[in-house]
Design a protein that fits this description.
- The structure holds 2 protein chains of 2 kinds.
- The longest helix of chain A has 29 residues.
- The termini of chain A are far apart.
- In chain A, helix 1 crosses helix 2 and helix 2 runs antiparallel to helix 3.
- By secondary structure, chain A is an all-alpha fold.
- In chain A, about 40% of the residues lie in helices and about 0% in strands.
- Chain B is built from 9 helices and no strands.
- In chain B, helix 3 packs antiparallel against helix 7, helix 4 runs antiparallel to helix 8 and helix 7 packs antiparallel against helix 8.
- The longest helix of chain B has 30 residues.
- The two termini of chain B are about 35 Å apart.
- Classes of the chains: A mainly alpha, B mainly alpha.
- Chains A and B meet through helix 1 and helix 2 of A and helix 4, helix 7 and helix 8 of B.
Chain lengths: ~150, ~200
């Protein structure tokens, strides 16, 4: 556990103090992406957008099973990658937290495998995954797949 | 150095055309408290930050704000992708349409173009961190305002995500402020500027 729980600076006049976040048990990673943080202790909703009242829209309008599978894999990549994004900021201010660090490394490995699987099955999402996929067509590949802003609806 | 990944940080899949909603949301692209301003603010401030870890945090949050800019632009794009000439005339997007058709251009909801005057990089760690704490709160208020008036669940889901990020970033900037204060003399945080008066900062005065 991270024992460095509170700001070490004494409170003084004419200066703000913000308590340091303690490690708290993360949400499951799908919930984390939907809610916008992996940490339940930092999820402070607005009364017009309560916890749990929105869902991750991963539906495609396609009847094509391959497109649906692509969408599922892409969602999984987004879920794991977001947990890494949120942990990155946590570790920037808690570099010695062993809970955060071990989870970070575990998720990075998972993400690397997901990116390689996606490149293998569909197209590369990053340039580095252009060499981890099978690339049996000898195509460039970077131009494949829909643009991210199309929302998978085309 | 940055590298691109061909996906959004949060999926955007909007089915219904709504130019009015696009006109409101575009403020979080090019408005005073938008994501473009946020990323430029943090990425500009990091060079002179006296605490290396705080410079690192500014890089990481500044990078995330670029992802958020891409989410907002995708929302504006999808909301106006199938805009009809009739909707362009009557549905609240008419002035924008005249200047930009349905191209994506950084402006505030009221039409004011993006300007660097909306951000600050002051060359003083304490001042810049308070600027950033305020920026996160201002952006949160805009997301609150959007969530109060927009009903489409396809639009609300990414807005709710983006609002939550503002609160997480506020906490991280608060922690960065504590890290900076630790290296300063708590008797008077204003005795010198930790970015400019480097000798005094290094001597821990």
């Amino acid at each position: 556990m991270d024992t460095n729980t509170c700001c070490p600076c004494p409170e003084t006049l004419a200066m703000t103090s913000i308590p340091k976040q303690n490690w708290c048990e993360p949400y499951d990673y799908r919930t984390a992406l939907t809610e916008g943080t992996i940490f339940p202790c930092l999820n402070l909703p607005f009364f017009k957008a309560e916890i749990g009242d929105s869902t991750l829209n991963t539906a495609t309008i396609s009847a094509n099973p391959e497109e649906n599978e692509r969408e599922q894999m892409l969602t999984e990549i987004s879920i794991i990658s977001f947990a890494i994004n949120d942990l990155t900021l946590y570790l920037d201010t808690h570099p010695n937290c062993q809970n955060g660090l071990s989870l970070f490394k575990e998720l990075l490995k998972k993400r690397l495998k997901l990116l390689a699987d996606f490149a293998d099955k569909f197209y590369p999402l990053t340039q580095i995954s252009m060499i981890v996929g099978e690339n049996d067509t000898n195509c460039y590949g970077w131009d494949e797949g829909p643009a991210p802003w199309e929302g998978g609806l085309i | 150095m940055w590298s691109y990944e061909k996906r959004l940080q949060f999926p955007v899949k909007i089915k219904n055309t709504c130019p009015k909603t696009a006109q409101l949301i575009i403020s979080q692209y090019g408005g005073p408290d938008g994501e473009l301003a946020a990323s430029m603010r943090y990425l500009a401030q990091r060079y002179t930050m006296p605490i290396k870890q705080v410079g690192g945090l500014l890089t990481d949050i500044g990078t995330e704000e670029i992802n958020h800019m891409e989410i907002i632009c995708s929302m504006v794009y999808q909301l106006t992708k199938h805009l009809t000439p009739e909707q362009a005339k009557t549905a609240g997007f008419d002035a924008y349409y005249i200047d930009h058709t349905t191209g994506i251009w950084p402006q505030a909801a009221a039409g004011i173009p993006f300007t660097a005057l909306e951000i600050q990089s002051k060359g003083d760690a304490i001042t810049d961190l308070f600027e950033n704490l305020a920026a996160e709160q201002k952006a949160r208020t805009v997301y609150d305002n959007l969530l109060r008036v927009i009903d489409d669940p396809d639009v609300r889901a990414p807005l709710k995500f983006l609002r939550a990020r503002e609160i997480v970033h506020f906490q991280r900037f608060g922690e960065a402020l504590e890290m900076t204060k630790e290296k300063m003399n708590a008797k008077n945080f204003y005795y010198f500027n930790s970015e400019f008066d480097k000798g005094m900062f290094e001597r821990g005065m």
